[in-house]
Every structure is written in structure tokens, then in C-alpha cells.
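Narrative progress, year one. The postdoctoral researcher (J.K.) led the effort to move from monomer predictions toward full complexes, under supervision of the PI. The following entry was the first complex the group processed end to end, covering 512 residues in total.
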Amino acid sequence: MLYTENKPMDEILDCLGDEQNIFLLACNGCADVCETGGEKALSAIKAELEKAGKNVTSTLLVDFLCNKMLVATRLAREMDKLKRADSILAMTCGVGVQAVSKVVDKVVHPAANTVSLGGLQGLWPSDERCQACGDCALDYTGGICPITFCAKSLLNGPCGGAQDGKCEVDSEKDCGWQLIYERLEKLGRLENLQKAYKPRDHSKMLPAESLRKTSFYDLEK
Amino acid sequence: MKLVERFKQSKCVITCEVGPPKGIEIEKVIDELVPLQNKVDAFNVTDLQSSVMRVGSLATCRLLKDRGLEPIMQLTCRDRNRLALQSDVLSAAVLGIENLLCLTGDHPTLGDHPQAMPVFDLDSVQLLLAVKALMDGKDMAGNDLEGRRPQFCLGAVVNPGADPLEPQIIKMQKKAEAGAQFFQTQSVYEVDKFANFMEKVKHVKVPVMAGLVFLKSPAMAKFMNANVAGIHVPDAIINELAGVEKEKRVEKSLEISARLIKELKGLCQGIHIMSLGWERHISTVLEMADL
């Protein structure tokens, strides 16, 4: 299981910007345990979005958003509603956000930060990796993680060392920043890259011990 | 003197790169540079170039200054976190260093200690912003610096040969907004492509210095083509170099470099020479290029 915490509503609204029609997608796996996903949290976030004047075009609960096949199949049934939405707000871990981004050409905003407490995503042994940095940047990078896809975990663009789209560290590995660039270009969001992204807060990699006393971790004791 | 003053004199600014030795016999490295004092505006001292352990940039910069040469301290994010980086910036100010070139740095796996921990706590844009904040009297945590403020001329790098180029240009603009006052580029051998690049970065109103690595042999050119991102030596140049007898190769190489400099200097605001051990030839090349 991966542990997640809600991003502050202000940050979420800032990410949504002018987008009015929001498709709300929540994970019913680990995120349900953490109360960042699941039915209750879904209703709560829906209410908050509506209070802020947003139109929630649709809500969807999927058992494990990290399971790309499952996500693709479930979203295929919602195609019309998805088309009407400006973006997707995904209530899930970093792996879930990346899996959703991989299967739909829509902007996907993370609603949660994934906290560094170890553990694995629910189901799928996928390419999408999450280092549980506690300060999810997937909103700005179009759903491809700069922390895990870039060998230097750079937050402000490519280092200039990539050759033919491959990383300077491993010529078989794609340059994460090239993938991010191509993805943002496709989404029409290249302007995301123009602002200087803040330095990481590494203290978020040292979460309080009390976090382990959540219902899930209590089972281990 | 801050390099930015040189650009104001609207001349072609010349910098060259100095690689500190692996070992402590630094005197001969510096002795070789002293005759260039009046020909080269400033000397970039690399910061463990290619992630190979050696004498540091800060100490070498100070030694250059003591001999009357203007240093540019290169500072990378590869092996220092924000505490060490900010502290080294203050140390540089204390030691009278006036020019800082802020880079992300190569990954340690490319160097001679591939087991080392890659740090990259900051990236080049964030480093520029952190130095800018120090110059405004604040550290990254927002604490006030005591007393007078450090003042630097800040530089950054850009790779005009990167493919795709657009993300490089976006990042270049970010670096300019973060406080970069000049740019040095990866080595350029295709003048037309460079002219095209300069056209595309017109909106970035910061001086650009075209980089040039002296080509010592056709093999070196081929190696760089295969292994160095953004460098492309055209076949015409490789054949030109390969076409002369071995004894005449140095002469030919210098001729090629001088020709490239002559063509590049009109397109940008300066030339950055990476001589890689051929420091003794810099003076000749500059004369051949009428500089």
C-alpha cells in the first residue's frame, strides 16, 4: 500500500485554474484506506469543488487506479463525459495519476501527495513509478513524474545531456524531460514549463512517526 | 571585474576553460595561462568536470586572481545540497570571486566515482535563484545575511545543438529570468545552425558566447559526435582535418578553430574556448581570428 494525504484545497484550485468542468476520479484501493480516495472523500471533494463554483461533470470510483488496464476499460465507458470535461482531478497516489495520464489525453491533476512510508502500489507492476516525495509535481509535468523519470530528478527542464531522446546515464532509458515536453505539447500546456519550479522540500521525505499509526499500519503492530 | 562590464564595452568577449589538475601541482596549469592575461577576458574554472574528482573550482579561482587573471567559478548541483552550495557562494564572495557560472552538472555515473551519491538538491534554475536571493541579502530559508551583500555576475549555459531545441530555449529563458547575465554554449561547429539558434533566442536579451572545443584529431571529432549531446562536427571539417599529414594536423586544427571563431563572433557577443590541454595554442588561434 502507498500512503497518501490530501493536497490543500487552495493548491488544487490553483492547479485547476480557469477549468470549469471537472471529471472527478477516485481510487478505491489504498487511497480509500487513507481517506484521500473512496466514496466518502469523493463526495467531500465534489462538494468543495462545487462550493468553489466548479461543475463536476462526473464522478467515478475505480478499485485500483494504479491498474492501467482497469482504468482504461472503466474510462472507455465514460468517453462522452470525459470529452465534456476540461480536466480530470485524480484522487489517488502518484502511480495512479501517472496511469490515468497514460491512458487518456487529458490534463490530469493530482488531488493528493504520496508520502514516503514505503510500500507498493496496489496492483499493477507498471512503468509508472512514484518515489513518494510528499509534494506531487505531476500537475505541472503533464502526469509524467520528473522525480522518477529524470536521472537527476530535475524540476525545471532537461539538463542538455540527452542524446536522441535518451538519458545521459543510460542510453536505453528515455529522457524523462523529453517525454514531459512531448506530453505537455500534446496537451497544449507548454506554458507550464515557463515558470521556475520551486526546490523540493526534502523534509517531506521524513514523515512523522505518528503517520504510521493509521488504521492500515496499526495492523502490523 | 564582472564579465557583464566587458559586454558593455561592446567587444567580442573571450573566455576560456581551465580544468584543475587531479593532484596538487597546480602551478604549471596557472603558469600556462598567465601569458593570456591581456587576450582572454576571463577564465572558467570547471567544477569537477565530467564528474571526475580533482582540485576544486573555488581554490583555483582564487589562485588565478592572485596572478592577475579574472576567474569565473563554475558551480554545479551534482554533489552539494543547498546548504553547501549557498555556503560556497558566500565563500566565493569572501575570496573576491566576482563571476559565477551556475550549472546542473553531469551525473556522477559518467565520471570516475560512479558509486557516488547524486545530489541534485537544486537544479541550475533554482541555483541561480538561490544566488540571486543571497545577493538580495536572504538565504533560501528566508533568513537575513549579516552585513554587506555578496555581488556576482551570474552566468549559465545552453546547448544550441540539443534536439529537440525548444525545451532548451524555454529553460534558457527561465535562467535569464532567474538572473543569468550571460550564456556560454556547448561547442559549435555548424555556423548556419548556430545563426538559426541565435535568431530563435532573440527574445532572451542576454549576451551569448559561442563555445568551441579545439578539435585535436578526426578521431576526437568522431568520438564527440557519437558521445556528446548536442555536438555535431560536420564531415567536411573531419575530412579537412584528416586530409593533412599528421605533422601538419595541429596547424590545420588551429586554422579550423580560427575560421570558426571568425564566423561565429559576428553572430553573438563572445567566444568561449575549451582548449582541453591546448592552452598554449589559444593565443595563436585568437591572432589568426583577428582578436
